[in-house]
Specification:
246 residues, mainly beta, 13-stranded mixed β-sheet, 2 helices, DUF2071 domain-containing protein, DUF2071, ADC_dom_sf
Length: 246
């Protein structure tokens, strides 16, 4: 059994009562978060979901990372398919007593990953040209490929600046990061995807960020304030089959 699955005391609810279907690793993850008015998100989130807030404020995040070693439960790694780069845009929601994540968009530089995630989870994946460089800092640039998908560009240069820590329950950092399911809509149906990983080993970070229309529905003035920045070097995650919500 994978050692990560033995660590469950941090979870707000139990693991699903079925086998996981996929695992992957996330490397050099950066969490970029801004507080935004609840009203700015409402019409862009499925009406079945309640936007989650922290002390009355909604939050939106840009999260870039490397994906590595993706594989199914009973399948080996496939060279050229198991690793790619991703930049997602997300907010935080609640449904049926659970807290989780809602993705506005997910840009990836691997066509099969884009098509597979759309087919299995119905997530709003877009193909993008993404470049990642690791020096004494990390740099990622992403430009969406199809003009019909909307212009979307982001450039990030980031580096961790503190020691590793675990966010304490009740803090904003814990609220933003410790999420163990996602929701999406497939037609008129609300779908939940459960995930599992150990607690986030966070480091506060510095970053230079430039983005163009990555979040087109949001007044860009909200994104000119200094964001809250956190970095994680590595995390292994497990995914369960999508489940239709009642």
């Amino acid at each position: 059994m994978n050692k990560e699955l033995l660590v469950q005391s941090h979870r707000p609810y139990p693991l699903p009562d079925m086998n996981w279907m996929m695992t992957q690793e996330w490397h050099h993850t950066l969490f970029v978060h801004w507080p935004v008015p609840l009203s700015s998100l409402k019409e862009h989130v499925p009406r079945e979901l309640q936007i989650d807030t922290f002390e009355g404020c909604a939050w939106i995040g840009i999260v870039p990372f490397q994906v590595k070693n993706t594989r199914g439960r009973f399948t080996p790694l496939i060279p050229g398919v198991s690793s790619y780069l991703e930049v997602n845009v997300r907010t935080y929601v609640k449904y049926g007593g659970r807290t989780g994540v809602y993705f506005f968009s997910l840009d990836a530089n691997h066509l099969l990953a884009v098509l597979g995630a759309k087919a299995v989870f119905g997530l709003n994946y877009k193909q993008a040209n993404i470049r990642f460089e690791e020096q004494n800092h990390f740099e990622m640039t992403s430009t969406r490929v199809q003009a019909s998908a909307g212009i979307a560009k982001v450039e990030l240069r980031y580096i961790p600046e503190t020691q590793v820590f675990f966010a304490e329950p009740g803090t904003l950092e814990h609220w933003l990061t410790e999420r163990y399911c996602l929701w999406t809509k497939r037609g008129s149906k609300l779908i939940r995807g459960d995930i599992h990983h150990t607690r986030w080993e966070l480091q506060r970070a510095q970053a230079e960020i430039s983005q163009e229309m990555l979040i087109p529905f949001l007044h860009q003035e909200y994104l000119t304030q200094q964001p809250l920045l956190h970095y994680t070097k590595y995390k292994k995650a497990f995914f369960w089959p999508p489940k239709l919500e009642k």
